[in-house]
Design brief:
The chain has about 140 residues and is α+β, with helices and mostly antiparallel strands. It has one domain: 2-Layer Sandwich (TATA-Binding Protein), CATH 3.30.310. Helix content is about 40%, strand content about 25%. The protein has six helices and eight strands. Strands 1, 2, 3, 4, 5, 6, 7 and 8 form an eight-stranded antiparallel β-sheet that branches.
Length: about 140
Amino acid sequence: MRKYYLFIIKKEFYNVYKDKSYVLYKILENLHNLRTYDFSYGIKIYKELCLPFAVKVINNYLNKKIKHKKINDKIIKIESNFEDTYMQVNYSCIVIKTSVNIPQIMKILNIYNKSIFVCDFNNIDYFWLNNYFKATNKK
């Protein structure tokens, strides 16, 4: 299973980091691994770098358009014959745990915002979601 963290990067930082993905990944990895006593510092950096997700908008869309099952108040399982995908929508990031490399829900999230940066901290993998779909559309 892969575990992806999706962040919306502010436009000014998107322009800075669009060709320096590794540097952005390391910043987000450091924020992800912060100790509790450093949270206030981490929150300041996060707010400078990222935009929050519109949780209500995303949840309304999911409820109307995507077949899913609620696991609890925060986590849903997306119903599919081709993948086993769980999703948690937070203001700070979206967490997706999946059995496939790129779950279908990421196509919808790419439409939602073109400056989403995806990190898999366990596998040291990262990419811009819009670049991934640009590359797959060219094939």
